[in-house]
What does this fold into?
Amino acid sequence: MTSSVAYDWQLTHDLDAFLGRTGDFLRSRPAQHTVALTVTDQLRRRGTGQFGERAPVFGALERGGAVRAAFFRTPPYPFNLTPLDERGADTLAALLADAEIEVPGVTADTETAAAFAAAWQRRTGATAAPLRSERLYRLGDLTVPEPAPPGRARVAGEADRELLARWYTEFAEAIGEGAHSNADAWADDRISYGGITFWETPDGTPVAMAGATPPIAGQVRVAPVYTPAHLRGRGYAGAVTTEVSRAAVAAGLQEVLLFTDLANPTSNGLYQRIGYRPVSDFATYDFT
It folds into this structure.
């Protein structure tokens, strides 16, 4: 039997209108909605042109007078969806196709991403190719890895801007997003709130970095974590991630989160040893 409850999608380019409509909904599940919360917070703080010249698009699904799902897209990145059932995915695909809105791909929890990819193929004939599978982790009891590598943690500052931009470029290229990255803007944003921590050797040389998003809705997300290739395997990533995680716990954050690429068993093993526990899996599809 088909439900008689309407699936009412509302689209907008107005960030304030979107947050006014969906803010309570997004905050109701801060772990599951971490990306939507942190990206819209960055757009609010730094302006909607942070990711490119084209305007972001936002949307909310209402049923029975309440918000049930939301999405955003900051071109040139894929759409990011909160959990949807199959009918919701189909109605969204129909709406976007009819409005001739560019949809280069989608990121969502595994079931939602697959449902929307299938709906988009039916509606448009596009090919949906799996691009990346990730796991969201939540920090439980923090465990400091031993022995710690020699050195110490230090928050990056303005004098580190060039190094931050270079390392971010390398990180973005490693995860396949190099073509979309604006390393200078990213470095400026992270420096503005102390959002990157280095691990330094005893002589003061940075050898790894870990970042954290600004707190919002009681959560932060640790990202990115990066060690240059020639310095890996020495415990630097674990040490700096532990320090960033410890700082978040000390600040009283209720949720300390991070994503890992499921294709990388090293990072998944590392974060679990530190004390991170799986929450849910996410997938990204590319549409051609």
